[in-house]
Amino acid sequence: DTAVSQTPKYLVTQMGNDKSIKCEQNLGHDTMYWYKQDSKKFLKIMFSYNNKELIINETVPNRFSPKSPDKAHLNLHINSLELGDSAVYFCASSQGGLRGNSPLHFGNGTRLTVT
Amino acid sequence: AQSVTQLGSHVSVSEGALVLLRCNYSSSVPPYLFWYVQYPNQGLQLLLKYTSAATLVKGINGFEAEFKKSETSFHLTKPSAHMSDAAEYFCAVSEGGGTALIFGKGTTLSVSS
After folding, report:
1. What pLDDT digit, counting tens, does each position of B62-91 carry?
2. According to the model, what pLDDT value does residue A1 have?
3. Which residues, in sequence order, are bridge partners of residue B44?
4. Which bin fits A41, alpha (ψ -120 to 50), beta or left (φ > 0)?
5. What is d(CA B80, CA A54) in angstroms, rounded to the nearest whole number?
6. Residues of chain B contacting A92 with CB distance shorter than 8 Å
7. Does residue B98 surpass a pLDDT of 80?
8. In angstroms, rounded to a whole number, what is the distance separating the alpha carbons of residues A5 and A109?
9. pLDDT higher than threshold 90 for residue A63
10. What is the 3 state secondary structure string of chain A?
11. Is the minimum CB–CB distance between B59 and chain A shorter than 8 Å?
């Protein structure tokens, strides 16, 4: 009964490839996020969607493209992968948009390794 | 823009000792503050949150934090550390109004027997 589930858990690929990470939440939340955690464990917001609408788009290369087919799903597609994309990518969800007082619920992460 | 600083990237305590993890924030409006814990190879789990109600907030696993506006701090404490508390701890701040949750750089807590 995982609340926020991401697939795959591990992803190893070569430079230049295109890959996708999928995320689904069964909490009934209306807002979903992608965070990137680097090798020093620093967490940085990448994107946020509220009811399928993009509301946060941080300074992220346009090789990264999020897609939200419905409010329970938020996928991340990455084109032309680079070594620097290696990180752990976390999906999260919350209720109530970006009012700030709703905690985020995180998935277990996808560890992406680009060789 | 809001920001958060966690003092001490690594804290080591003995089992049974007091745990104190420091967090200072910067915000232009009254903030919402959170502490999360991350165990190895897992996602982040909410420990506790401050959303302008009581300044002393109790969380899960015996942790609590006190919001001190005058010091712009939100330090996390636990009276007696347990081996299972060893993990990465993140303080986070949000101003609401369309802004995302911003995380500190984390503090690794080690507990020795």
Report:
1. 999 999 999 999 999 999 999 999 999 999
2. 64
3. B38
4. left
5. 44
6. 43-44
7. no
8. 8
9. yes
10. CCCEEEECCEEEECCCCCEEEEEEECCCCCEEEEEEECCCCCEEEEEEEECCEEEEECCCCCCEEEEEEECCEEEEEECCCCHHHCEEEEEEEECCCCCCCCCCEECCCEEEEEC
11. no
Among residues of chain B, what percentage have pLDDT more than 70? Answer: 100
pLDDT band at A59 (very low <50, low <70, confident <90, very high): confident
- Please tell me the predicted confidence (pLDDT) of residue A16: 97
Q: For residue B61, which amino acid is it?
A: N
Question: Phi, psi at residue B85, to the nearest 5°?
Answer: -80, -10
CA of A14, closest CA in chain B: separation in Å?
23
For tokens 């919001």, name the residue. B67
Residue for token digits 């500190």?
B104
Tell me which residue in A4, A44, A103 faces B49 most closely, judged by beta carbons.
A103
What pLDDT shows up at residue B1? Answer: 75
Mean of the pLDDT values across residues A51-72?
A: 90
| CA distance linking residue A36 with residue A71, whole number of Å | 20
Q: How far apart are CA A9 and CA B41, in angstroms?
A: 10
**Cβ separation A33–B88 shorter than 8 A:** no
CA distance B73 to chain A (A): 18
